[in-house]
Write a structure and sequence with these properties.
The complex is a heterodimer. Chain A has helices spanning 2-10, 12-18, 21-38, 40-43, 84-120, 122-136, 140-154, 160-172, 179-194, 197-204, 209-217, 222-246, 257-265, 274-301. By secondary structure, chain A is mostly helical. In chain A, 46% of the residues are buried. Chain B is mainly alpha-helical. Chain B has helices at residues 2-29, 33-38, 44-54, 60-72, 86-121, 126-140, 143-157, 182-215, 218-225, 230-268, 273-282, 286-314, 316-324; strands at 170-172, 175-177. In chain B, helix 5 runs parallel beside helix 12 (286-314), helix 7 crosses helix 8 and helix 11 (273-282) packs antiparallel against helix 12. The longest helix of chain B has 39 residues, at 230-268. The termini of chain B are close together. The relative contact order of chain B is 0.14. The chains are: A mainly alpha, B mainly alpha. The A-B interface holds A 130, 133-134, 137-139, 141-142, 145-146, 149-150, 152-154, 156, 234, 238, 241-242, 245-248, 261, 265, 268-269, 271, 273, 276-277, 280, 283-284, 287-288, 291 and B 11, 15, 22, 26, 29-31, 136-137, 139-145, 148-149, 151-152, 155-156, 163, 252, 255-256, 258-260, 262-263, 266-267, 277-278, 280-282, 284, 286, 289, 293, 296, 300, 304.
Chain lengths: 306, 325
């Protein structure tokens, strides 16, 4: 473990990481967010889902540094006396889980379709690429919204798990930021790799086609895919937040950052800005740090820029 | 060229029929609309009567055929919630969305292009760096959050601008416009800015990148060697050549504006089609949802077709490539 870490640190990759202050700051922020989300139960000062600890007398308190704020509630409380900071940490966890799951699903579908199209070619390739064209001619957020909205209208009484699954599906299928981008990238690199000598050699020695695809071609096309996946984490989290804000996202029993913003939005006019602004800032912080990491990764993995 | 357009047309028709099929399926699987309309205490005769009135008692394919014929005529039946004709509801809401998208598009172009040109020409200057940083924020900030922040600052804290609705509208024929009164414009500012920011930053970054690319080319160096003024080089030669990709992206973004309008309209309670759709989702108002789906698909198919044609018309290289290949 230590050896691999130090080897990574001394490699070109580690060098370019050390040279980029933006990447270091972004990585630190992302690490803190992930840490808090994973250990939410220990990190959060209160449990926002434990109704017995809520005190209505503490409702709508401003952040601790404002007049009337309490040190107990660092970022203030919402209309039910829930600690904003704790709700934020739990909300981040849900946002991250949905975002990562959506990226994983898009990867699975996109890489599969791309490999298939690139390796098989012919009419299947033409059909799949046409499909990609059509899907990506609609804006991502619109497709996600339509899928989530239609599903919501079809099954208003769906269980929480089903609601989560539909949401993840909606984000993964969403336009040009979803599976389509992986399919296109993987197809292009697969077509290049397919003609190379190592693939021909494998074919000549009688390695089955499926094994060539998965064990020989796939490892050689993952570089650009990882960059896309990193950036997609940010767009997936924002898409989820937007859908939840519009009321077609996560089920209300497990509020994500978007749900918190939606709920807090109602209190904006009575001056309780902290209920909606802090989850919003958190969302921007996550999106920004993931985007910066993705930018760095793209530059670091691009040999032409070295 | 004509083969290219024909193929695109065919593709457009396939998309439209699939979207129509999806919206038709909606009708089949959503919980019984009759219960929504009549409530729980309706008598069986009332229910049967209404089912017959709404055509819900006919077989699947006949219903789909009726649906297609009606949809082609812009007829989607009655809204289950409001009891009014869907086509009329959408027509009422259309001007609001169109005016919002139009103002936002103009704002994005009029502000975004000069900002991009400036950031390319004065690369490294303080103002350019401010532009680039702000644009990074504009891309990272989700639309609804921009809207909320603008409301917080300009409506709640400063109290300068109204935060919801369209304000007074004036009817010009069937078109209700909020662009003819001062108060209407005051209502327009925050939603339009919210909707424009993402496109604005996108256009700015695109113009900057394209300008930097073009300024490096030989013909710009040659123009410099000929002693042309900076102005002629930058605007007569360089900017002109950056506009092709900008035009394409802007065309495609018009559709994006309509998509993001759903979010903006929800934040600002702007009475457009997007808000109508979100409300329809909440109440499972299927005819409205179906009509909106079909309308959006139609708008997109048309925009994509026009952009494809414009692209072929503007860039002669494409025409040659299409003709020979």
């Amino acid at each position: 473990m230590r050896q691999t870490l130090s080897r990574w640190w001394d490699s070109d990759f580690g060098y370019s990481f050390r040279q980029s202050p933006a990447a270091i700051i972004a990585a630190v922020i992302a690490f803190i967010c992930i840490f808090c989300a994973v250990f939410a139960g220990w990190v959060a000062p209160h449990n926002p889902f434990d109704l017995s600890t809520l005190e209505l007398g503490d409702a709508r308190l401003p952040p601790a540094w404002e007049e009337g704020g309490m040190a107990k509630y660092l970022l203030g409380t919402d209309d039910q006396g829930r600690d904003i900071l704790s709700a934020l940490i739990y909300g981040t966890r849900i946002s991250l889980v949905v975002g990562l799951a959506a990226v994983a699903l898009s990867l699975l579908i996109g890489v599969g379709v791309g490999l298939l199209a690139g390796a098989v070619g012919g009419w299947l390739d033409a059909f799949l690429m046409r499909l990609c064209d059509v899907v990506s001619s609609f804006p991502a957020i619109l497709v996600a919204l339509l899928i989530a909205g239609v599903a919501r209208a079809l099954y208003p009484q769906a269980s929480d798990i089903a609601a989560f699954f539909v949401l993840i599906l909606a984000i993964a299928f969403a336009g040009s930021n979803g599976w389509v981008q992986y399919a296109r990238t993987v197809r292009a690199s697969t077509m290049v790799e397919r003609g190379k000598e190592y693939v021909q050699a494998a074919r000549v020695t009688g390695v089955p086609a499926s094994r060539i695809m998965l064990r020989h071609i796939l490892p050689n096309v993952t570089g650009p895919v990882m960059v896309l996946a990193t950036i997609q984490v940010a767009t997936a989290i924002i898409t989820e937040a937007t859908l939840s804000f519009l009321g077609v996202g996560v089920p209300p029993t497990s509020p994500s950052l978007g749900t918190l913003i939606r709920v807090g939005n109602d209190y904006l006019f009575s001056g309780e800005w902290w209920i909606t602004i802090f989850p919003g800032l958190m969302l921007v912080l996550i999106a920004l740090s993931v985007n910066l990491l993705g930018d760095w990764l793209r530059d670091a993995l691009n040999p032409r820029l070295r | 060229m004509s083969v290219f357009i024909l193929r695109r047309l065919l593709q457009a028709i396939v998309v439209m029929v699939s979207v129509a099929f999806v919206s038709f399926l909606l009708f089949q699987y959503v919980g019984d609309p009759v219960v929504f309309l009549l409530g729980q205490e309706a008598t069986p005769e009332q229910i049967r009567q209404l089912r017959a009135d709404l055509g819900l008692d006919q077989p699947f394919f006949i219903q789909f055929w009726h649906f297609l014929v009606n949809a082609a005529q812009g007829e989607f039946g009655l809204s289950l919630r409001q009891g009014a004709k869907v086509s009329r509801l959408l027509a009422e809401r259309f001007p609001a969305t169109f005016e919002l998208a139009l103002v936002a598009a103009i704002l994005a172009l009029v502000v975004g292009i000069p900002m991009g040109v400036y950031a390319a020409l004065r690369r490294g200057s303080f103002l350019s760096q401010v532009f680039m940083t702000v644009s990074l924020l504009g891309v990272s900030l989700p639309t609804f959050l921009i809207g909320i922040l603008l409301i917080l600052v300009f409506s709640v804290w400063l109290g300068w601008l109204p935060s919801f609705g369209r304000g007074p509208t004036v009817n010009i024929g069937w078109w209700s416009s909020s662009l003819v009164t001062v108060d209407g414009w005051r209502h327009m500012i925050l939603p339009a800015v919210t909707l424009a920011i993402f496109q604005l930053t996108l256009i700015m970054r695109l113009v900057r990148a394209e300008m930097l690319e073009v300024l490096r080319t030989d013909y710009i160096k040659f123009a410099r060697a000929r002693g042309l003024t900076d102005r002629a080089i930058h605007f007569g030669h360089a900017l002109k050549n950056t506009l092709v990709p900008v035009m394409t992206i802007t065309g495609l973004q018009l559709g994006g504006l309509i998509a993001f309008a759903i979010i903006t309209e929800t934040v600002f309670q702007w009475p457009g089609m997007g808000l109508l759709f979100i409300q329809a989702v909440t109440f499972a108002d299927v005819p409205v949802m179906a009509a909106y789906l079909c309308l959006i698909a139609l708008i997109f198919v048309i925009i994509n077709l026009i952009v494809d044609m414009l692209y072929a018309a503007v860039d002669p290289r494409l025409r040659v490539a299409k003709a020979t290949g």
